[in-house]
Specification:
Elements (H helix, E strand, L loop, with lengths): L2 H4 L2 E6 L9 H18 L3 E4 L13 H11 L4 E4 L2 E2 L5 H14 L6 E4 L6 H7 L6 H16 L18 E4 L4 H8 L3 E3 L5 H14 L11 E5 L1 E3 L3 H21 L8 H5 L5 H11 L3 E3 L1 H15 L3 E4 L6 H15 L7
Parallel strand pairs: 1-2, 1-11, 2-3, 4-5, 5-6, 6-7, 7-8, 8-11, 9-10
């Protein structure tokens, strides 16, 4: 195995994607099941996401779901990728993570983002209509202050104050600069635009200021990685998500995942076909040998300390198999263990 791959951590973000014809509750239970599997395979951490009003995503309450995942596992680090700060008061977020860290000490991560919702209706329901980077930076500083006990209000966050819950910034757009100024680890994606990703990482490292949370820059690169017995089988793992993305771009609604064969037999408009083909490109997909070569290239180009895998597909067993094969690349023997 490559020493570059061996030195990196590998983790998983699962968005609790719903499948056509299946209830949302099943997607949430599948997330917990997947967490148990990736813990057995030796992955470093497991994160869940926050989406609101999206038919294709069941994960709307990340700290609640993180508690279920942490309760079902034993050694895996568990967190969020991420809690969207514009949707919450920082005090409430601090309290939620304080409870999680108190229940599962030393295992909780706090991934934080600033997305304000998928549609205008969702944004109105959440009470936010814009993505404001400076507001996010101020909310982030307030949130971290609750853990440090530096709030000027005289209020103390219970049980959060004095606890250490590692914070990460999801670096969309200006997020790299915010993470650097705050001295926090950064999660950046996606792997499909390597040049943009490298620019963001270089910007972050050049401007990083050491903080009580991180003495040095820490980079997590994220994206879809599909591993299968053949290149064709790996590509088919990407088909359901590529179609859902294409549908959302052309219809304004992000749907549940369809089966790959249903997508491949579908008659698409030229616009749909364009978005669909684009959605299939740029990911890391193939056999173990092909994926290992591509991972080594990405890690050499970025010098990232960690890879966060975000793959979604309709076939759950094929998804589990992909994670098993990937574990066999990064931890030889894990898939058989």
């Amino acid at each position: 195995m490559s020493s570059v791959i061996a030195s990196a951590r590998f983790s998983v973000l699962d968005r609790s994607r719903t499948r056509e014809g299946r209830p949302a509750a099943e997607a949430l239970r599948d997330t917990v099941r997947l967490a148990r599997e990736v813990e057995r395979l030796g992955y470093h951490r497991f994160w869940v996401s926050e989406h609101h009003g999206v038919p294709g995503v069941a994960g709307s309450a990340p700290t609640v779901l993180a508690a279920a995942v942490a309760g079902a596992t034993h050694t895996l680090r568990v967190g969020t990728g991420g809690v969207m700060l514009p949707n919450h008061r920082p005090l409430v977020v601090a309290e939620q993570f304080g409870v999680l860290e108190s229940l599962f000490p030393g295992r909780i991560d706090m991934g934080l983002g600033r997305s304000v919702g998928f549609t205008d209706g969702v944004r109105r329901a959440l009470g936010h209509d814009k993505d404001d980077a400076e507001e996010f930076a101020a909310q982030l500083d307030e949130l971290l202050g609750w853990f440090r006990g530096t709030s000027p209000t005289g209020v103390h966050a219970r049980p959060s104050e004095g606890l250490t819950v590692p914070p990460f910034v999801l670096a969309m757009g200006e997020g790299a600069d915010i993470a650097a100024r705050a001295g926090l680890p950064m999660v950046i994606g996606d792997l499909r635009d390597r040049e943009k990703m490298r620019r963001g990482i270089d910007h972050y490292r050049a401007r990083f200021r050491p903080s009580p949370w991180a003495a040095e820059p820490y980079v997590v690169v994220s994206g879809s990685i599909a591993v299968a017995a053949t290149p064709e089988a790996a590509r088919r793992l990407l088909v359901p998500e590529a179609w859902s993305m294409a549908y959302s771009r052309t219809h304004g609604s992000f749907p549940p995942l369809p089966a790959a064969e249903a997508v491949e037999s579908r008659t698409m408009t030229a616009k749909e076909r364009g978005f669909y083909e684009s959605g299939l490109s740029g990911h890391i997909a193939g056999t173990e040998e092909q994926v290992a070569r591509e991972l080594e290239t990405v890690l050499k180009e970025t010098d990232a300390q960690e890879v966060l895998v975000t793959t979604s597909t309709y076939d759950r067993e094929a998804l589990f198999d992909s994670y098993r094969r990937l574990a066999g690349i990064v931890r030889p023997g894990a898939a058989a263990g």
